[in-house]
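The data are quoted verbatim for completeness:
=====
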Amino acid sequence: MRVKFFSFFFICFNFIAFSQEVYVADLGNNSPIEGVQISTLSGDTLTTNAEGKINLSSLKAQDEIQFSHPNFQSLKTSYSGLVQSDFKIYLISRNIALDDVVVSGSRWRQASNKIPAKVTSISAKEVQLYMPQNAADLLETSGKVFVQKSQQGGGSPMIRGFAANRLLYSVDGVRMNTAIFRGGNIQNVINLDPFVMESTEVLFGANSVIYGSDAMGGVMSFQSLQPELFLSDEIKVKGNAVVRHSTANSEKTGHFNVRIGAKKWAFVSSFSRWEFDDLIQGRSGPKDYLKTQHVKRIDGADVVVEQDNPRKQVPSAYSQFNTLQKIRFKPNEKWDFQYAFHFSETSSFGRYDRHNRLRNGLPQYAQWDYGPQQWMMNHLSFSYKNEALFFDQMNFSLAQQSFEESRIIRLLNSNTQRQQVENLNTYALNIDFKKKLGTKNTLYYGTEWVTNLVDSKGELTDINSMETETGPARYPEATWQSVGIYAKNEYVFSNQLLLLAGLRYNHFSIDADFSNNLAFYPLPFDHAQVNDAALTASIGSVYTPSNDWVLKANFGTAFRSPNVDDLGKVFDSEPGAVTVPNPNLAAEYAYNIDVSLSKIIGKHLKVELDAYATLLNNAMVRRDFQLNGLDSISFEGTPSKVQAIQNASKAKIYGFQLGMELKVLKNLIFTSDLNYQIGREEMEDGSTSPSRHAPPFFGVNRLQYRKAKWTVELNTFFQGEMSFENLALEERLKDEIYAKDANGNNFSPAWYTLNLKSLYKFSSSYAVSFGVENITDQRYRPYSSGISGAGLNFVASVMINF
């Protein structure tokens, strides 16, 4: 009887103790620490919330539990140690540390020091300080991603010489890339709301083993707000509200979210609204960027009017609305269910660079707008944890997305308006497994199925009579499908050496029907099919001989299957050229190697150097073509040479990323990120040209002061010059986006911006952010962009937490 009593007492004690929340705080000031990684030898990882708390009831009693954070010394303890400390952990601040944050971009929550590839992470705290206006600006704050813009309502990242459909976008583990992602610059990333991102991660280099097609230059992984569970059935409510105003575009922004949680159920509800006026550029810079006129419709006629303010970029105004709804149900420690609904809608907005294109000295277009852009996602996911024969944990994800995009175009003095509308429905199923094989070996494997249904329509409207008729569509009616299986193995040789290797097989297909365009274009075919497969692999290692330096090496192959945009679009690619369909396409492949070294020197300096090289083979590029034996046709009233996307090139990209962090004083830190890349593309005649998506030297320097409630930062973002000779051949004729050098040739001048950012937290409930951007009022335009950046800009925001 006595033995049974003590056994019952011991079981109850363990249950009660392990059901408690662990509180992690700074030993210096007892303030809670957000983002602390809690990891075990079994590979489980958890992260503390904004209150420094984490529910460890999902973890069994462990002999070793590690607490890690980039700004604090790591601490190891055991389950019994947690009990003895009353579930309170205090970490000691450290001067400089190697980056060991938890990332999710690999589809599993892992410490970045266990991933061979280069990873950078942007936290929610950084978003509070920098207050980016959209998700593209959010990526730019990293200092490692270059962003191109053709209009204010946009932003196209460039990573290591790749852009657009050679990069992969992921939100909560679901790929956003669609079958109409184009090779030119795209603006789809603005569908995402930076206010709801708990973390944003960029994985550099080839990542096709996990993500399949398109992950050639890198993966941008966005993790949105997670519903938060608590230990008791008592309902807890948390929320956040933000209002912001910027002067350069008369921004009016509002955001509100609320999080409701109990023991088994939790909810998130979020709403954001942005309104932007036409963007005003700076005073000092190239006169070529000034806009002296724009087109107005007056009394039924197109009139070219002079602008009162040539620094105002008309038309560039737009607005946007986003909402996020999530519900989570965790009935026990094995099962965790979640449903998420994302929705984003923009107003129509002018493609600013096309409004600057001239013909015979006058604007070529009276109207060139992207119509309202919509994105919706329904996402059902669950995880199941159990030490079964084939897995310890399974993650299931089923997502449906709807996209609507349109283009509204009318030539100057034309009464015919051409509108093209694309509607896509995409479906994705992912099942991922994790299995611990002994103490040193972990196997990750899974399967993915993706399908895209493309519906493309064209319409011609007489703007006087408002009569409409069917017009040319941008794409055929098409179905794009991809099925893949992968396996990745992590082997820990010792505390110093880790090896990671993976393999993926992928089958992809396209079924395209061109009958919707046969009445408008003399295509020699009405149907096209693609059926092909790709095999990709990766191998990498992480060597950590001591706590003050780490060496990573990674080799990976990646592929991009042809999509509907490659195979089937018709559009004016550049002045005097038109791109037509080509059904004879195959996948392109990238072979990437990168090596990175992170080293702490002394107690106050950390240096990171990443060097990489990529070979792109069988590249899909635009080349001269023939249509029914013709090398030139009339398109929108302009004689245009015929081109098509073809597997006709190779490209080499290589470069380096250099980062430095110096603790000048106790509360004063200087950081610098520098990026240099060179890309060369093989041309049709065997010569080489600079690659279009390899930007010039760029980076950011920051001097940040942090103490108690204050964070103040002075930073400068900059870009080197891209001369006419270093421009890609297809870029050299784009008069509407580049400045003129002394010889009258197009080029992208060097520029910099000086910016001041500050954040003051009155308490845990109230904070204000104030910034002055482009203090010297520079008139600048990032490389390959069609719109200039903001001039002198005052930004203010108020944040309320409850």
In short: The mean pLDDT is 90.
